[in-house]
Design goal:
83 residues; alpha+beta; three-stranded antiparallel sheet; 3 strands; 24% helix; 36% strand; globular
Length: 83
């Protein structure tokens, strides 16, 4: 609820390349689904890693109305890979 209507930048981790977000926006604004991994910050400023899918929602005229994102926290999986 705290994030609804807010820009993603409030949770963006400083390690994330702006290029990832450029590619993400290019894809979804082209009415394509984007899938990828994003590193974000929790409320307490610690990092978490999310596997995300972002889909544009289109109206009957094929115009973008909104976007829906489904994300899974894969932080532990990524930490195990590093070990």
């Amino acid at each position: 609820e705290e994030l609804i209507g807010k820009p993603h930048s409030i949770v963006r981790h400083q390690d994330m390349s702006s290029k990832v977000f450029e590619e993400l926006w290019a894809a979804i604004m082209s009415k394509k689904i984007w899938r990828g991994v994003i590193k974000n910050r929790k409320r307490d400023k610690t990092a978490y890693i999310a596997q995300s899918t972002i889909t544009p929602i289109l109206d009957e005229n094929g115009e973008i109305v909104e976007f829906i994102s489904v994300s899974y926290d894969i932080t532990q999986l990524e930490e195990l890979k590093d070990e």
